Amino acid sequence: MKSLRMKTLIGAVAAGAVVLASAAVGFAVVPNSLPGGTTVTAALAPSTDMTFVGVINGLNVTVSCTSFSASGVVPAGTPYKMNLSAPPKISGCTVSGFSATIKTNSKNGKWALKVTKTAPYKLTLIMPKAGAVFTSSLVAGCKIIAGPTKAVKIKGSYDGTNTDQVTNAPIPVKATGCTASPTSSTTATVVFTPSPGTPPF
After folding, report:
1. Domain 32-193 has CATH 2.40.128
2. Where are the domains of the chain?
3. Which of 29, 55, 87, 188 has the most other CB atoms within 10 Å of its CB?
4. pTM here?
5. Predicted confidence (pLDDT) per residue in 114-139, tens digit
6. What is the 3-state secondary structure of the chain?
């Protein structure tokens, strides 16, 4: 018959093995990641606008847009990059009281989202070359092309739950029919549904 001391030792070793196994499983399984095939949508946080700041014909201008929407399907596996199903839609835009339009396209490639693997997390919206064009009744005949020579990486800070904060992210631009600063910037707070949680998606 095994001694009480031996039984206690065996019990302690077994308990320790269970704890270590549980810890290993905890590290192996990524919490909050979404299964492949899940459609994730993105929209502006309630009561916020997406803004674009730049210079047109020597004047500082701020474009405010009330709506941003996009979606993508999570790839299988443990992805840190996701292509959007279509170019994002940006609407409800005005500049100095005049109407404005931002038309997006995917003529030169797909729009995509890419997130870093470790905290603090950075989320990047990748816009293909010439992926957006701005016009406004403020300056007739003026057309501003975003990313005129190559794809643009619009970087933000992801909170590890469901929100991306973009603050003064630079966007190279080129103007026709007017003059513009070579770079504008954008600010927005974007919320994802369902919540992707901790990367990967």
Report:
1. no
2. 1-30, 32-193
3. 188
4. 0.84
5. 999 999 999 999 999 999 999 999 99
6. CCCHHHHHHHHHHHHHHHHHHHHHHHHHCCCCCCCCCCEEEEEECCCCCEEEEEEECCEEEEEEEEEEEEEEECCCCCCCEEEECCCCEEEEEEECCEEEEEEECCCCCCCEEEECCCCCCEEEEEECCCCEEEEECCCCCCEEEECCCCCEEEEEEECCCCEEEEEEEEEEEEEECCCECCEEEEEEEEEEECCCCCCCC
